[in-house]
Design brief:
- By secondary structure, this protein is α/β, with parallel strands linked by helices.
- It has one domain: Alpha-Beta Barrel (TIM Barrel), CATH 3.20.20.150.
- It contains ten helices and ten strands.
- The protein has an eight-stranded parallel beta barrel. A two-stranded antiparallel sheet has the order 8-9.
- Helix 1 packs parallel to helix 2.
- The chain starts with a strand and ends in a 6-residue tail after the last helix.
């Protein structure tokens, strides 16, 4: 059985309203056709804060549209990147925001289950960073309350954080559920100067979603191979952990998307083949 290979929603299209990463209202169906042409298995759906009610994930009619596009193209949706919760964190210290986000997440989980989604990625970075112990404590308590809902729907929360390997593992241990796993972003880890060997040693067995990206140390996204990510080292060692989740291209994008994407897709597939991912 091989891993699925996919793309972060919007990376094959021109920037939506000039934004680097956003749900592309009005264009999202076309991207599934482009993904099929690129030989991809998946689109990782974005659930955005802006215009969230216009996202097809939020209505039965929208879910039916997604299912129809999946059936037409053969390109699936197994993961959702829930960027909404960067803007409105589940662990916000403002009760009104936290309560509303709780109810929004309930809707996302229920509708995601209709699509057969396996992972909802929760980014705990930037505005939603777990920057102090109080934030961590609130987050752990809230996520624990979601566990029965996740179990009922066979969905994981895949956490993306800016924590170092040790604290990140401690966070996972505190939550203590097989339904709470790790999203590993190659570029973000390189930007923060983390050692991929230490990260994999800490939580390599519980990674459920991988974002392929390159960044400069302390800097922005760059074309794959031009930043500080050590892809050879990462992929060679990842093989030791029998990773079965998807690889999602969240690589550098320009204004248009498709040309620079294809260039990087060819590059990363060569790197992965070199270290033994023959199925690519």
């Amino acid at each position: 059985m091989s891993n699925d290979f996919g793309v972060m929603q919007g990376r094959l299209l021109p920037k939506y309203k000039g934004r680097y990463q956003a749900f592309p209202i009005g264009m999202w169906k076309y991207e599934f056709e482009l993904a099929k042409e690129c030989g991809l298995d998946l689109v990782e759906f974005i659930f955005d804060f802006n215009d969230s009610e216009k996202n097809p994930l939020m209505s039965q009619a929208g879910i039916n549209e997604i299912i129809s596009v999946i059936q037409q193209t053969g390109v699936s949706v197994k993961t959702i990147c829930a960027d909404y919760f960067m803007e409105a964190p589940l662990h916000s210290n403002q009760k009104s925001i936290a309560n509303n986000s709780w109810h929004i997440m309930r809707r996302v989980i229920d509708n995601a289950a209709l699509l057969g989604v396996e992972d909802i990625v929760i980014p705990c970075v930037d505005q939603s960073s777990l920057k102090n112990q109080e934030c961590v404590d609130r987050f752990v308590s809230i996520i624990r309350n979601f566990i029965p809902i996740l179990e009922k729907n066979n969905i994981n929360f895949s956490l993306e954080t800016d924590l170092a390997p040790g604290p990140f593992l401690n966070l996972i241990k505190r939550i203590d559920s097989k339904r709470v796993r790790v999203n590993y972003d190659i570029g973000n880890s390189a930007s923060m100067g983390y050692n991929p060997l230490e990260e994999l040693e800490a939580y390599g067995t519980i990674i459920s979603d991988i974002h392929i990206k390159d960044r400069m140390l302390g800097g922005p996204s760059v074309v794959l191979g031009e930043g500080n990510a050590n892809f050879d080292l990462f992929f060679i060692n990842l093989k030791k952990y029998s990773y079965k989740g998807p690889f999602i291209m969240q690589a550098y994008r320009d204004e248009e998307g498709i040309y620079v994407f294809n260039k990087q897709l060819i590059w990363i597939k060569e790197i992965m083949k070199k270290v033994g991912y023959e199925y690519l």
